[in-house]
Amino acid sequence: PTNRDAALEYADTFYAEDRYEESLVEFGKVADAFPRFDKVYHWRGDAYRNLKRFAEAESDYTRALELSPKS
Fold first, then answer.
1. Which positions ≥6 away from 70 have C-beta within 8 Å?
2. Cβ–Cβ under 8 Å, residues 47 and 27
3. Which of 68, 66, 60 is nearest to 28 (CA)?
4. Are 40 and 27 in contact (CB under 8 A)?
5. Burial class of residue 41 (count of CB atoms within 10 Å of its CB; 0-12, 13-18, 19+)
6. 8 A C-beta contact, residue 41 and residue 60
7. What's the pLDDT tens digit per position in 18-50?
8. Where are the alpha helices (DSSP H) in the chain?
9. Longest Cα–Cα distance in the chain
């Protein structure tokens, strides 16, 4: 992806349809392309949480806070 916001919104379309595994793939692509984009870690953390993958969710939430402590 070249436009981080558009890529994040695309990933969110899967999340909004409760297609969490697919959203994780897309959120991962955004995180790879834009590793300092805090929102992607928060949103991916939400997908992990919904899948009850709590350790991965916590890791992503921690990364989001590291990148944007005032969020």
1. none
2. yes
3. 60
4. yes
5. buried
6. yes
7. 999 999 999 999 999 999 999 999 999 999 999
8. 4-16, 20-33, 38-50, 54-67
9. 30
